Amino acid sequence: MLAVRVLGTAAILFVLSIIVFSMLHLAPGDLVKTLLGTRPASPEAVAAIREQYHLDDPLPVQYLRWLGGVLSGDLGESIRLQTSVSDAIAARLGLTLALCGLAFAIALAVGVPLGVQSAVRAGGVLDRAGTTLGVIGLSAPTFAVGLLLLYVFAYYLPIFPVYGGGRGPLDTLYHLVLPAVTLAAGLGAIVLKLTRTAMLRELDADYVTSARARGIPESRTRRLALRNAAIPIVTGASLLLTFLVGGTVLAETTYALPGLGTLLQDSVLFKDLAVVQALTLLVALVIAMIALLADLAYLMLDPRVRAQGGAA
Amino acid sequence: MELENAGLIEIDALTRVLDVHSLRILVAIDRTGSISAAARSLGFSQPTITQHVQRLESRLGTPLVARTARSASLTAIGQLLAAHAPRIDASLTAAATELARALGHRVGTVRIAAPAEAVVGTIAPALARIAADIPGIEVRFVEAETDEALELVRSGRVDVAVTTGAAGAPGERGQRLRREGLRSTFLYGEELIAVLPFDEMPQPGVRVEASALAHLPWIFGDGTRSAVVAEAVGRTGGPADLAVSRPDAALALVAGGVGVAFLPESAFAAAPPAGVRVLGLSPALSLRTVAVTLAEASEIPAVAASLRMLAARRPSGYEVEALADARRRSNGHRARFARPIALATLPRLQEEDPLMSATSRSRIARAGAAAAGVLLLAACTSGAAESSTGTDTGEEIDHISVALPGSLSNLYVGQEAGILNYYIASITQEGLVSVDAQGRVQPGLAESWEQTDDVTYVYELRDDAEFQDGTPVTADDVVFSLEQARDETASPGLAYYLAGVDTIEKTDENEVTITLTAPDAAFAANMSSGGAAFITSQAFWEEHGGKVGTADAMLLGTGPYQVTEFVPDSHVQFERVDTWWGELPKVKSITVEFIPDESTRLLAAQAGDVDIAFNVPLAQSTQWEQLQTMRVEYVNDLSYVGLYFNTSLAPFDDPKVREAFAHAVDRDAVVEKLLRGHGEAATAIMTPESLGKAYDADEAREVLAGIPQYDFDLSAAKEALAASEHPDGFEAELLTPSTGPQLGTAAQSLAENLSSIGITLNVREVPIEEWLASLDASSSYGAGMMWYFSTLGDPAEVPSYLLGAGNPSAYSNPEIDELLAQAGTESDPAARVELLVQAETLQAEDVVNVPLWWGQSATAFGNDLGFDDYSSFAFISSWPTQIYRTAP
Amino acid sequence: MTAALGPVGVGFRSRRRIPVTIVVCLAVLAVALLAVLLGPLLFPDATEQDILSSLMPAGSPGHPLGTDELGRDILALTVAGAASALVGPVCVAVGSMLLGILLGTLAGYERGPLDFAISRWTDLLLALPVLLAAIVVSGVFGGGYWTTVALLILLFSPSDIRIVRAGVLEQAARPYIEAAQMLSLSRWRVMFRHILPNVSSLVITNAMLNVAFALVAFSSLSFLGVGVPPGTADWGRQLTDNRAIMFDNPAAVIVPAVLIIAVACCVNLVGDWLGQRLTRSGGLA
């Protein structure tokens, strides 16, 4: 079963790489023009550059050349940065991972407890306040939240730095607080909402009523309910993580962070094939792994699903 | 083995016996010829000196001084030792001075010898500058002619000799000097001028052959340089020749019709007297003025500083019109430190300053919209150099932080040639020449150059130039760098500039010769870091396999700052080095941060994190101006924005349709409202600043306004459309780049106007890469926005791109091609502009391009920083050297 | 619609009073709906420029909310912009929801290879760089409004599919489904008449979220040449366009931003309330 899963993932990666390759080819923009800028170019110059990057080869050949490189371990070279793709990614991976991790952690740490409490005392003050804040956090465009945070915490109360990734691990963490909070605002709101909804449903269920009737302490009952609510929460949370991976771009732009998000964006616009492929496949791999982990989590959490034959 | 050891031990012992004091004594004896005189000159008593010498003689076991009754002279051994004395003395003095400095004493003495003529123009200003900027240095000056001065340096009696000699075979001269242990620093070069009586007019033109004047009486003497010319043409003395010792005497004689004289340029403190005509020589003869020092003495900080001060002053005076012609020649030195030579017609810069004081400038900036304000702003900021507020405190600045409105992925301009890349690369790299605040070509790594014929350029490199890692710059490095810049696969962004180059060769140890396939009047400026010349070391390039400008390799250049860290899309770090040939800049380290988001950048400035911000978005300018800690300065930035049409696509192949568009553009409203007055409504493709070599600001605008214009007139637009083949209107799409929001709003305004005459223009905003891809004759868009940034301001640059071969409009006009070709080879700036104006007139009649505006850019500076000569050309040369700390 | 099989909720369907907050939200949404319907009629000339009245601040005569750079009245633009701002995102949310329901239910209920294929398809969609998809779509199909809606439906669907699938998975294990299967009810009936209502709360919640996300997505894609061209009356577009003049006429940015947030909030709150009602009355968890 696991083997099937792995094969399936490999198949996706392959299909994805072909799709991305074709899309990059179709996208407007011209690598040669981007390299040359607004200068006229002699036909010889254009020919020389096309030759250098094998742009005149038939498409399948270009694709196979890239594929051959990847299968032998060479992710290729970034035309824009003139370094190897692995170097370019490695240089930024840490920052993006830290940002995502921090944002996710904050979102969970704030959203789940708040969600549970809101559900338990549905309609209470905390519930209403939490929901409202959550809704605002969701609805406000990310850049607006980012700007607001910057104004308050970096300008009026200069606690945090305005931009940049910082140097050194501790300094970097310090620089990432505001961006992580910006991202976590929306995420946390979703987590809160999901948790609350799921908890509400569970708390309404029969087994909770009967547990209470049997005199089982409330906290235990809640824990029970939480375990059952976990499935949709886990689904939602895993989804969040995948959105996070794509959504760091806005945070990185607002806070001038040199992360993977900006790398992907710039590379797509530049039509820097090797980088776009490598990043997309990396993201796909991460998503597939997370999906796998989520499905495994079901198995652990819900015995009924286990009985049914487990995850696909 | 033992013998060798014994030999080594002996030399070792000898070195311990020799000491500087003894050597000084020997030198003094040699010079004065007697022990007592030597003692006096050194400030000791005679018995002390005698004892010292005797002690030395007994230790060495050989006599050093041969004494006679009245005099003393050195023996052969004594001479030998004395010969080494000056250099050892200099080394030790250098060490001692540094030590004294480190210990907190400010001590240094510099002794300078120079001929009398050099005092007014060179020595006196340099001394004044030294006194002002480097207190604690004592300067002593003695007048001496060239040979005498050199001798004084050799014997160690003066530190610096300023000498003048004929130009020619400098490599050889340099070698000779080096063998003697001397080092020369190029100060400036000047041409020799023939001064004739008014009625002696051999032939028309601005130059005359010296041999043609041979039959006339010549005026020789110390006040003239006629001897040099005579030698050069092989004229032996004539019967009526005279000799005077002063230049003004010579001039007076010439005015009286007595004869002709040959003077250096610097002899003219003011316009020559009436009755006299001045002409250049053909072929041109130049003189080089250099400062010569002992190689070791140049290490002495005081001496090194003085050398820089000397090099910085260019004798100013009347500029001879003949020599202001387009023939390329060296102007002397980094003009950023000198006030440019005033042409008789331009006002002197000092007079302009009170006009543009800080308060009036910000008032103008705030008033913004009034048409008068626009014109005033344009006049004040057009190309002319301004000095910034505040006086220079001379303080060192530890660090400045620069905010860049975009991100760099590679530092090498050949790989990524955006305007921001130029700004950053020029901090650390230089070209053969540099560009001054007026856009004129000045020396860079090449201390002089000559255009020997219309396709050949010979560059003479500085012999003291070094890369930031300490290795010397050789002609091979220069040739290599330029060859790489020429290669499209190695440098796609630069290859275009060197497309017309035929050969690049090292022709002498410090000489590089470049030949073109066809004459190109714009070539000289291309050899700067505003064009295609970014000189790096061959060893460095090969070490990194040609992948320079990346995070690992970074850059190696010859400029005053070295790249110490580069994180693509994040920041670049620069540190000051002392290997640069120019004056040490005040800023020690620079961090350039990439902050693409404009709100974040503004916040960073508000938080005080930013010292300089490039390209402040014009729409945010009010906000930046309101910052307490920063000020915003605006300058015409040589950029052009206009409409262009693809004449191969219907309906834009119909000239009446194009005319309709041209009449639908409301330039003044766009400039006033959308650009907030920070721009100028364009009457032509060429910007007024690019005409700077031929016309001043007002004249340039007059010239350009003479090109046919299309006024904003919707009824005329309607008429034109009605007369076209699409009288009922049509629909079209126009792309604008997302990095240029002002182009988008201007396009929307145009679309609105067009909709009232029946044309629907859909404006689509796309990423810059997509927009760039559409700038091609093969694109499917019939109308487009053109946005061109010129770094060097050559007048032919943009018209050639827009109207010449391969232009994005698919426009082919043989007359224009002919005019452009002629302009390419024409060396006289005014004639060149005339040709280009004709080309523009033709295209205006065909309405292929509709000029919209000439752009301005805004730079924000911290209020505690001053910037010398902020102009349109400020940032394409080593601009951090122009920063200073102002008094609060 | 009959209630689902299984234990019926205890007690009667209590008709609770609608809380005040929800009333307010519903009122806001009603106004928005009015603006959507009537806006183009009330302000047909909203996008007309008047460059001479550029950048007038709020409160100027004739322009209560001021004008933008090209002299367009902010109030007019805002009212006229409701349609463009809201219709697209709602369509995206609805479309994504429908796709999610269809594919998610199939995947969660049928399992096996169908589930495998659908799940891998969502993985693929999630991994695809949004930027790349956007510029290719704009390049190949032109950057129209409805093309963007279609693109966003495609890009938003994975989240709905996943959520529905998870909900269905969880429901499918329950006894009442077993019972239904034993009754040999056709699987379509089981899926859509029995499971679906019980998953509806999750789905509706997510759909409401998607409206808000889609609102923002529209305007962030605008700089790529997709979605809404510059100068259109559209809240998201105004937000992007007028950032530059934020300090000259703050109303130009604040008004659309507040409206986006307000509508999104209201939609979410109403959605929550609806979800609660669906959960408590009738269908059972």
UniProtKB/TrEMBL annotation, chain B:
InterPro entries: LysR_HTH_N, LysR_subst-bd, SBP_5, SBP_5_dom, WH-like_DNA-bd_sf, WH_DNA-bd_sf. It holds the Pfam family LysR_substrate. CDD domains: PBP2_NikA_DppA_OppA_like. The keyword Transmembrane does not apply. Residues 18-75 form the HTH lysR-type domain. Keywords: DNA-binding, Signal, Transcription, Transcription regulation, Transport. Transmembrane segments: none annotated. Belongs to the LysR transcriptional regulatory family. This is ABC transporter substrate-binding protein. It comes from Agromyces lapidis.
From TrEMBL, chain C:
The chain crosses the membrane at residues 20-43, 74-104, 124-156, 195-218, 251-271. InterPro entries: BP-dependent_transpt_permease, MetI-like, MetI-like_sf. Residues 86-271 form the ABC transmembrane type-1 domain. PROSITE patterns: ABC_TM1 (PS50928). SUPFAM superfamilies: MetI-like (SSF161098). The keyword Chloroplast does not apply. Gene3D superfamilies: MetI-like (1.10.3720.10). Keywords: Cell membrane, Membrane, Transmembrane, Transmembrane helix, Transport. It comes from the Bacteria. It is found in: Cell membrane. Pfam families: BPD_transp_1. It is a multi-pass membrane protein. Its main location: membrane. PANTHER family: OLIGOPEPTIDE TRANSPORT SYSTEM PERMEASE PROTEIN APPC, PEPTIDE ABC TRANSPORTER PERMEASE PROTEIN. Belongs to the binding-protein-dependent transport system permease family. This is ABC transporter permease. The lineage of its organism: Bacteria, Bacillati, Actinomycetota, Actinomycetes, Micrococcales.
